[in-house]
């Protein structure tokens, strides 16, 4: 009995300690919920940063061009299957699309890495087939598209009065916000853009998409000619905007213009920008370009008149390669590190401003063009911005927070951010440059937007709560860029 009770005491002790271990295990904060906590904290801190400043009491006035279209949004793989286009075994880049084989090759080229791309289809028969098939596809969606109208929509929602330059059909103009005034000729047959969306992990033949994104095809008749430019220029004089935004020029990419036609159009646009009041900020939104001639024209005629540039992680190396005088980059890492992007941004900022100083050696007030004072780069994992000290751009920290939140809101398709549909993919700390010995900045949950000074500018970086249940990627950059701008004018 004695022995027995000693034995049972030991047994109880063991059971009790085992129970303690189990209890400790039970109450240990599980890894998942710790991550959840971090996400909640980052979200509430970003919301606080976004809410810190409102827009000015008066409604800011923003003029934005050029162009617009009707978007048909479909699941990319479903559409290709429907038209019976088999997956190619040869992913290949094409400047523009002439036939179905090239479409398959070009789609495969961007689909696997999950890189955004937009291409002109020179074959009308093929484009009509694609549009017809899309019309019949269950789950397709139609919406107002094009960089300018999407940015206009976001700016109107955020409290701006907007003048929009674009050629639209009458029904189209009706669905726009009452705070948007459209200027441009009315067209009966609007340009159609076909948006082939795909979620992360989607597969097409042997290809699997590394991240959610879209591949866009168009065959525009109006947009490449900047058809609304004249009307826009006239209305602009009285509108007297605080901010003038230009986007949508990728519709000119690889388009079969007559000799000299493109240059003449861009010269007119450059003239419009250069004649705007010095108190009007000018923002140029980059896009997916491959046509080197067009890019050269843009660098010469448009970009020098902008104070501000907006672009994504593909467009940044694309533009930089042109400025460096190397071959134009059409595909880059769709998930670049912060350090890489910041180095590219510093270089772009330096090169553009160097060009400005070279063309204006005396720094007179009657300078041709403007120095670049704002550069916003949006990537899947984070937002980054450079703003020159003493420039007109305000509230950089809040603007970057707003841009970051807008990324989730847009892609998830909801103004309220649901943390269970979000994920932080930025590392717990980032290096501010790829140069050896560079400072590392921790991502602090309670202060997720990191800002610091360098040279003559401030840099701010904010993590994105990446949406995991993708509703739509197309138009994301436009919503994000516009959301960033609205707090800065
Ligand atoms: C244009 O597309 C159609 C339909 O896919 C095809 O039959 C035709 O060969 C293409 N034309 C050219 C010039 O490639
Ligand atoms: C750059 O472009 C030229 C002309 O298109 C081509 O011959 C050359 O191979 C390209 N270089 C690289 C590194 O891609
Ligand atoms: C999240 C969000 O607001 N997305 C918007 C992007 O812009 C278009 C056009 O203005 C809106 O329709 C989307 O709702």
TrEMBL record:
The keyword Magnesium is assigned to this record: yes
GO biological process, alphabetically ordered: glucose metabolic process; glycolytic process
Keywords: Cytoplasm, Glycolysis, Kinase, Magnesium, Metal-binding, Transferase
Signal peptide range: none
SUPFAM superfamilies: Ribokinase-like
CDD domains assigned to the protein according to its UniProt record, in alphabetical order: ADPGK_ADPPFK
GO MF, one annotated term: ADP-specific glucokinase activity
Keyword Cytoplasm tagged: yes
GO CC terms: endoplasmic reticulum
Gene3D superfamilies in the cross-refs: 3.40.1190.20
Protein name per its UniProtKB record: ADP-dependent glucokinase 2
Species assigned in the record: Esox lucius (Northern pike)
